[in-house]
Amino acid sequence: MKLKQLFKKAISIVVLLPFLTNVNAHTTGNSMKESAMKESAIKVNTVKKVPQLSVQLWSVKDVIGQDFNGTLKALADMGFAGVEFAGEFGSYANDAQALKVYLDSIGLKASGAHVSFEQLNHENFDKTLAFYQQLNLDTLIIGWDERAWHPQGIKEVVKLLNQLDKKLAPYNIKTGFHNHNHEFNDFQGTTYWDYLAMNTADSVVLQQDVGWTTYAGKDAVEYVEKYPNRTLTTHYKVRIPEGVTGKQPIIGQDTIDWLSLLKANISVGGTKWIVVEQEEYPNGLSSLAAVALSKKGLDQYIKQL
Fold it and tell me: The pTM is what?
């Protein structure tokens, strides 16, 4: 009896083995497919979230005054989706509507503008607002104010930013501040930049200039992560730290971990626009040629996402 039972069990195992193997293979195959699909979905999702690319017009300050339309067309042809203004409007200084028509004709948007507190004071607010509203622009950044790295001045800057934040909100326009290296000087146990961030409303944009952040010895990625959803626009610029050799002020030929920065901007920063800024033109490059090289370098990192 025992031999017969053992023989029957053996036969059953032999009969069932191919079935069990197929089930296991099918299950494993499905798991691998599901895993691959998840990875693919994550990758697609990341690509969808890549911010649009703009360029700060200060980068081409040497040529834009000579040929405003031609310079913007050259930047559009490089593949930029937008431009950030810095006070130069060519023949459109008093005709924002015509400027908007031209931008539309070459496929560019106004990603934002650098302005001063004076341009947004009581006397000038309505005029400044009306001009930029016609460009369908939603971000006005204070590009420079020396009070931002002085013990009493920083408090004035914070107060003005909070006031402007409330004043511009009904028009669906945000304000913010752009850093240089001085804002990372020590202040009250932290830095002026941190003081500004911690004492302004979360709706105030922290437009980090990663070139100056790096030059000041700080980690640009760390500052994106430190203040989530506040780097709605970020300046991608190279500023080689002192003492560093063998590098160039061109994106991809420098010291910055651009891939990690991109990922932080996408996942934490809430970044809508990456604004390329070129302030140095190595090896005799023209401003437009240097911008094109940095754009090409940035594109290579975007492809790695």
Answer: 0.84
| 51-303 placed in CATH 3.20.20.150 | yes
Question: Alpha helix (H) ranges present in the chain?
Answer: 2-48, 61-64, 68-77, 96-105, 125-133, 153-168, 192-199, 210-215, 220-226, 258-264, 287-303
CA distance 143 to 116: 7
Dump pLDDT digits (tens) for 223-232.
999 999 999 9
253-287: buried (b, 16+ CB within 10 Å) or exposed (e) per residue? Answer: ebebebeebbbbbbebbbbbbbbbbbbbbeeebeb
Assess contact for 238 and 250: CB atoms under 8 A.
Answer: yes
Residues 254-279: pLDDT tens digits?
Answer: 999 999 999 999 999 999 999 999 99
Domain boundaries, the chain: 1-48, 51-303
